[in-house]
UniProtKB/TrEMBL annotation:
Keywords noted in UniProt: Membrane, Transmembrane, Transmembrane helix
Cross-referenced Pfam families: Mmc1_C
Residues spanning the membrane: 324-341
Organism in which the protein naturally occurs: Candidozyma duobushaemuli
Domain Mmc1 C-terminal, residue spans: 182-360
Source species taxonomy: Eukaryota, Fungi, Dikarya, Ascomycota, Saccharomycotina
InterPro entries: Mmc1_C
This protein's name: Mmc1 C-terminal domain-containing protein
Amino acid sequence: MLIPELRRTYPEVFEPSSTTPNSLALLEINRESDVHKLTDNCQFFIYVTSEYSTLMDNLPRHVQKKIMLTIIDNTEFTPHSAESTPVTFERSNSVTHHSIKINSRKAFAGIELFLKEDTKAASEYFDALQESNIIEVRKFLSWYLRTENLTSWMFHVICTEIARNTLSETKINQIYDDLKLNSLVECSASMHEELQKTLIPKTNEFFDKKLRWYMLYWRNDNVEYWLKDFFQANFMSKSIESYNYVRGQLTARLQEQKFAAYSDKTGVLNPLKAFKRTLVNERIANEIQPVVYSCLALGFIYYQLPLTVLSVLGYLFVGLEANTAFAIGLLGWVLGFNHVSREWDNFTKNWRKNFFEEVRIVISKGCVDDGLLKELDSRYEESRMLAMIKQQVLDSLQKYK
């Protein structure tokens, strides 16, 4: 069976071959882990199982596609075959997977009896081979070890895999429409919802309750770090994750074709994450902390210090009464506090208004228009082009069938 010169050609069943048959090297693989290692070294696999249904469950696709024949070996009903009987398997090379039912126990019993009793058991031996359907397997191998049949089978496997793993233009358009009309719209809506219902209320509450003007005297240098901690924990965390998730969906759904080399372009990195990084690392220190120093310094220099000095000098050198001097000094501190309160409230209201508007723009333009939508269009065009190229390759191959 292994050497073509000694192999039965079954002329009563098959027409003569125009090419020299191939030699056969059998390699028995019992562990699934070994199958992965040897996939590229074997021209085809013969899968032996007691239950046909276990094939698809146990083996990955790249192994399944190389399985030319599945042998179902059990003691259930088994058809008989003789050397002269017609074959039951499909001889068309467009069929890439075949199955044959055998009963190896009957064959083993016949062989064992023949080895024990020699030619006396010849009749029982041949009956056992026919009843086990082993001869059908020999015929199958004899047919598909012919060069023209083996190469044709491999050619059809390649064509089948290309066709199986090529997204149609209709499917690509459906994926594109679903991502654009559903995923991107839902992502944009969830981002705006988090801005309106979470970030804006929390930020306003933080400034109005925890960072009032009088807190500047207590926090002073620590206002910057307090704000950094707040935005680090509360700035659009769900939206940042949502952007990353949708980007992953774009890649996963529009780059699912096998045998395709996709570009490694990264698209637009998360604009909200970049905005947050700039806010925490630069803007708070450059925009807010200087205003804290300015409010406190100007209130002290323009109001509190002059009137305090005036009240002290008036009491010591002009003869102002203590109550009058105290009132003048107190007035200076009140005016200073009023200045700090007015300036800080005006600044924080304007800063928050501009800040929220900037976040809206980042969501609408940065995340959606210039981010996800552009990346979707780019991935879509790339997927369409690859599908078109693969279809052209497949059409060219079909001409040689």
